[in-house]
Amino acid sequence: MRSKSTIKDNIEKISAICAPLTVSSSGINSKEFLGPQYTCDGANFNPSLDISGIPKGTQSLAITMEDPDAPGGNFIHWIAWNIAVNSHIKEARPMEAEGINDFRMHGYRGPCPSYGTHHYVFNVYALDTLLDLHRDVREPELKAAMNGHILGFGRLTGLYKRK
What we know:
Blueprint: H1 4-17, E1 19-20, E2 22-24, E3 49-52, E4 60-67, E5 75-83, E6 88-89, E7 97-98, E8 118-127, H2 139-146, E9 150-160
Parallel strand pairs: 1-9
Antiparallel strand pairs: 2-3, 3-6, 4-5, 4-8, 5-7, 8-9
């Protein structure tokens, strides 16, 4: 697990050198809470994501979803890459390539906090290439492969608290 300050520092560096993406979702309500269908209390599938500001030259998108409030530090719920360039990612959409999350599984695994309200951060990257990665990569390997290829970056944060 990575510390929160390291994550914040890396995001600030990425944001300073690339185009800003605007990321929104109909799956996150006006109070910024994820719908239960996107969590372990529901169908546990990814919410839709709307992305604007994708720069020219983008060859693929990559997404990570993390919980910086997890007891052991930043917890990765999802990593996906080589996503076809599109301004709308449908909910429950099978991705072109998905690595191993911190649940030790491939694909999206939604919020399931054991206590309190947690923040869930969707990071979206516009890349100038397709990534040649094995399906068993984890988030550090994905980030290393994206280094030098990020044209645009945006994020969306949703909240979730179990009832």
